[in-house]
Specification:
The structure is a single chain. By secondary structure, this protein is an alpha/beta fold. It has one domain: Rossmann fold (3-Layer(aba) Sandwich). It is built from 10 helices and 7 strands. The chain has a 7-stranded parallel sheet, with helices on both faces. The mean pLDDT is 96. The structure holds NADP nicotinamide-adenine-dinucleotide phosphate. NADP nicotinamide-adenine-dinucleotide phosphate (NAP) binds next to helix 1 and helix 6. The site of NADP nicotinamide-adenine-dinucleotide phosphate has 29 residues, from helix 1 and helix 6.
Amino acid sequence: MATTAIITGASSGIGKAYVDALLKSPDCPEKVWVVARRIDRLEALAAGSEKIVPVQADLLSDEGIKVIKDKLSEGGADVTLLINCAGMGKKGNIADRTASDIRDTVTLNCTALSVLTREVIPYMNRGARIINVGSSAAYLPQPGFTVYAASKSYVVSFSRALAIELKKLGITVTVVCPGPVETEFNKLATDGKSDKFTGFRKFVAADADKLAASSLKAARRGRRMYVYGPPNKALHVGAKFIPVGLFLELFYRG
Ligand SMILES: NC(=O)c1ccc[n+]([C@@H]2O[C@H](COP(=O)([O-])OP(=O)(O)OC[C@H]3O[C@@H](n4cnc5c(N)ncnc54)[C@H](OP(=O)(O)O)[C@@H]3O)[C@@H](O)[C@H]2O)c1
């Protein structure tokens, strides 16, 4: 049975950077399943390496999860790495967002990540690793990005608890929390209005390739939480001490 990595959100940004970093690493599995909706991009990845297997799946739907589940049960696989990277967010106050924006964010970032993990675990053995991509948005509530921040708090909580559940099976779980990263994410989050970060975020924005390479190393070391970059680390520590109510009063005027 082929050793296999499954990477969701592999058609762009951080997920694609994980694919590139994994292919360069000495412990790259025999097969790398790249999962997303845009099949043309997945096929372009596959043209660069025989290891890559494109898997077109819309993770907002049960059918999308079933595509991966069926592929696992039909062909079998020894999944040594699962990277749950697919994610989305929509900026703006809740009252200004549609019901489907809200539903899709929670479904993709929380439900799909959890259900897919559950479906993959039976195909993992001792030494396997799971990486879940969280965010610095997980540390504190964010008016104007309410659902996204809450969904990433879920990812952190889910991952930290799952790490304990899977310890006896010898499977590690690492939740990776980056600050801003230059990808397609911001353009989608702002409905195409801004494809670049502005203000403070512009100066601290991380490089997706460096993030992917260093978080793969953190996962190899068995780290349960990996906060990427010094400004983000400072925010993470600060968020443990500042009362949430005071933070919201100081930084958000309503
Ligand atoms: N960029 C940042 O500043 C930042 C910061 C912290 C955390 N993150 C997190 O990093 C992860 C990756 O984001 P990114 O920055 O790389 O953004 P991105 O470039 O927009 O990539 C998002 C990926 O998710 C996939 N995806 C979206 N909806 C999907 C669906 N319904 N079914 C299957 N795949 C879907 C997209 O592929 P298709 O469109 O082809 O389906 C794409 O490959 C997300 O979880 C995000 O929350 C990003």
